[in-house]
Amino acid sequence: MRLPCLALTILIALTGRVHAEEARAWLAGDHHVHSRFSGKRAEDGTYVLGKDGIYTLPDNARHARQYGLSWVVLIDHGGEGLSKLRYEQAYPEFLQARQAVPDLIQFFGMELDTPGGDHSSLIMAIDPQEAETLRHLESTYAAHETKDPARDDPARMIAALAEMQGLTPRPLVIANHPSRGASSPDGYGRHTPQSLRRWMDTAPDVAIGMEGAPGHQGASLKIGATPDTLRKRGYYEQSPTYGGFDAMTARLGGVWDGLLGEGRHFVVTATSDSHRNVADGGEDFWPGQYAKTWVKARKDPADILDGLRKGRVFVATGDLVSELDMDIAGANLGDTAEVKKGQTVRVSVRLRTPAGPNAHGDHPQLERVDLIMGDVTGQVAERNPTTRVVKSFTPADWTREGEVITLNWAFTATTDAYLRLRGTATDEAEPLPDPLGENPWPDLWVYGSPVYIEVR
């Protein structure tokens, strides 16, 4: 009997904790937070800190914890020669942030100037070699690490993803503000369905999703803003956001639904893209102040990344919802429910709506919940015409006990499909394009990852 006890003691000593009995809980986070290391080039070519992002890494960590986050990814822009600066200057300050806020799980990373694409969050797994690995990936693959235009090539990104897929532990890549560069609501920027699909085909455990709700949501609240200086939410000039969400996510039957209809497990996130807070004359919120990405995980870095990969995820703005569980034949968010054709399948949804005030001092109310279904055909398509709202619930249709709302629905299984949830504090039947100058605080939404349904 002594040998197993000794082995367990050694295991605890090596890992620092045992998670076998620890239950997963909803943990809020943000994977897109900038610091003073997102600087700018001066006329003499030197890189000046604090000219874009203005806060130290410990400052960001403290505010993330203040606004209820359990995990955060501290990233900064890339650029000419910045892999060296990130390794020699930013990483030591990042370690200080970990020490200053030890109860916040902090991932190191960067906002990759994606070869052949727009920006993306490159999130390193917590590992003794995290800084060295990031330096290698950035110096080898980042589009603007040198002045060579040939580096801005989609093939270079595919090579980067192929290498990342082979790493242990693997990093994550999430496409940032995917439609911000689009010329119209129906167009695409440098992130396209085709490029995202190719990323996933190359590195399915690395390229896992896109920002559903981009940052820079406080543009209308900027101190001293005038009609001539106002910017749209998210800086989305030609392709607007819809309820603060990117068109690829918010438009029913759009790109996200198209990818889900192919059978792909693809997540959407919500971030701050924090550079300068509205209280300091900027257009951004602190991490967690307005938007949160919730992951069902143990408070363990590897399990948080696993939750993002597996789709145990929902996103919400304005603290509209803080827990979301949807059970379909024993499967929850990100899982696959196996059912028989013709079977009556019951859907049980549980949401927690916080009773306390959000960061704006408001007590937002959930006005409607939509269950959205789409067929999974496996066919490659930019849209999914089968996507529809199969049931809308209002307060008259659900049961409330304190902060917890429960609702139920049933359907007959006929074909492979997915079911996802969307909720809002507004009276909009579908999220509308966000007008210039809109106050983001009343315009709140929640989106859940799908449960996949496989008919046998």
TrEMBL record:
Keywords: Signal
Signal sequence interval, chain numbering: 1-20
InterPro entries: Pol/histidinol_Pase-like
Protein name: Phosphoesterase
Lineage, opening ranks: Bacteria, Pseudomonadati, Pseudomonadota, Alphaproteobacteria, Caulobacterales
